[in-house]
């Protein structure tokens, strides 16, 4: 499976004391790239559980998933 994820920030995110989950006592980091609270997990990965390893996916801002043949990127600065 592959997934197109667009990130709006660059550089590190410094963890603060309020990033700690008070109930669990830990910090969960997003690995799917879909969390609205990125880089922290918000459970968005649950929508990827049925992704096929042979498909490519794009998720819209509203969470709608589409299967695509390929992802093509262009460098618009040239």
UniProtKB/TrEMBL annotation:
Superkingdom of this protein's organism: Archaea
Keywords: 2Fe-2S, Iron, Iron-sulfur, Metal-binding
InterPro entries assigned to the protein according to its UniProt record, in alphabetical order: FeS-contain_CDGSH-typ, MitoNEET_CISD
One example GO MF annotation: metal ion binding
Domain Iron-binding zinc finger CDGSH type per the UniProt entry, residue ranges: 10-51
Gene Ontology CC: one annotated term: cytoplasm
Name of protein: Iron sulfur domain-containing, CDGSH-type
Protein's organism: Halostagnicola larsenii XH-48
